[in-house]
Write a structure and sequence with these properties.
Elements: E1 2-6, E2 11-15, E3 17-19, E4 22-24, H1 34-43, H2 47-78, H3 83-96
Antiparallel strand pairs: 1-2, 3-4
Length: about 100
């Protein structure tokens, strides 16, 4: 599908490939051996759909892993904070109001 998008002063021509609910703007190439390609064709495997799902799954896994590492770093930093001192500052601030 070719779509046209109008800007205030210019006309921008964009070519987009639409597959299902995905508007693709980048192309990724996957290389497989001949035997694998024959089996893909034989079983009618939707390569793009499976590759997209696998990539998104891997991205989610890595983002979770990254978040866990950030939590570990925060826990390490916060463990050094003296909670009694923080509570004292909060109470002092409240009485000053």
């Amino acid at each position: 599908m070719v779509s046209l998008r109008y800007s205030v002063s210019t006309l921008i021509y964009e070519r987009r490939i639409t597959a299902g609910d995905y508007t693709m703007t980048e192309i990724v190439t996957l290389r497989v051996d001949g035997e694998t390609k024959r089996k893909i064709k034989r079983y009618g495997i939707p390569v793009s759909q499976i590759a997209r799902a696998a990539i998104l799954s891997e991205i989610e896994r890595r983002e979770r892993e990254e978040a866990l590492q950030a939590l570990k770093r925060m826990r390490e930093i916060l463990s050094k904070v003296d909670t009694k001192r923080v509570i004292g500052h909060i109470r002092e601030d409240r009485t000053a109001r």
